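Encode chain A's predicted structure.
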Amino acid sequence: DVFWLSDPRRELALYVSPAFERIWHMPVAEVYRDWRAWLRDVHEDDRETVRAHLDNLGQGEQEFEFRVCPPGHEMRYVSMRVYVVRDGEGHDVRRTGVIQDITERKAQEARIEHLAYHDGLTGLPNRTMLMDRLGQALSQAQRLDQQLAVLYIDLDRFKPINDSLGHAVGDRLLQEIARRLRATLRENDTVARVGGDEFQVVVCNVAGATGAARIAEKLMRALGEPFTLEGQELHVTASLGVSLFPRDGASGELLLKFADIALYEAKGEGRNAYRFFSPEMNAQAHGRLRLENDLRRAVERNELELHYQPQLDLATGEVCAVEALVRWRHPERGLVLPNQFIPMAEETGLVLGIGEWVLGEACRQVAQWQRDGLVSGSAPLRVAVNISARQLQRPGLDGAVRRALAQSGLPAECLELEITESSVMLDPQHAQSVLQSLRELGVQLSIDDFGTGYSSLAYLKRLPLDRLKIDRSFIGGI
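Encoded structure for chain A:
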């Protein structure tokens, strides 16, 4: 710290500690010659403020901050505390003070403030800053009678890249995506990272839906160009939801909510697309939310039930197997079919609990039929149970199957697990490992919906399969 003592009546510096020279890069002797010499190197924007503080010492003490810019040296931030010493008659006879170099503290404060309002990985604004800028943009749009667009962006193929190449590559990819988004938008537009692979954009003074559509297409093109990282060419696509002010709403929260609803529609219609919000979407979203809340309680309320579709042996006419099909008997909606709730269960993760219940209940029922002698035929009745993509990807599927067989008493060869072709091809190596461990339990395995995805017969030879269920769209017209 710098300590100093001066005589204001004679305008003299009586003492200045040597630490002064480390900040000002000026010999202390200069201050002894001219007690205000140090003011020359105070930042020009701060100089008058400093003078005003020194001239206003009526309270006997002042504390203030300013910048020092020594010629040829780095700018420093300092804090000065000034005290007045008075004689018995109240006259100022001495001034004394302490000066501290607070440059590092200022840098830390700036870093903390940056982190409070920016994403640490990409440097983009975070949700806090986005909401602030969105509020300002809405005020300006209302004042100038302009339109404004909010876009919600979700990357379609980021997770497989992150999982297969590692988080370091995933982080670099997100940084490159952030750079492209920034480069595509105007300087007064805002792009923020609000989640792992989710971004939100505020576009000011947009030319209605047509202008917003052009921006959405421009962003999708920018992200559609391949990325090259560590010698690998990576391809990413994105889904976008768009809402407009004033057409869709007047508050920032509402516009973001509506853009999110539109994004959900874009992803549901095949991804790599953009959709504008509409009131019909909002009604559907509220309906989905209510259905999701009801679905969370359906298992504990015993609202799920299994229907069994028989498979016939055409040579003998006997029922050789049944497929367990889950249905939801909703107390108000009646019977809800799987295509209305299974995609939602997949998305929310509820399918894991539902899938385990279906597996256990199907094994229990068929084992009971066998014990009661209700099944006649030359071979024991087999039950087929559908396994979702989430169940296949999550560790512990073989353990769940082992428990269901043990608790029900059903022989392993009487259980067939059906996996869709698309779920296998999400991660073929992992699927091959899981199917092999299931095969070792003695259960049978089949591929469902074969022909609807993009697997090859050559690849299927590697999987321990018992049968293929060819989708009717594949053989229609033959």
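Residues 351-371 form the longest helix (21 residues).
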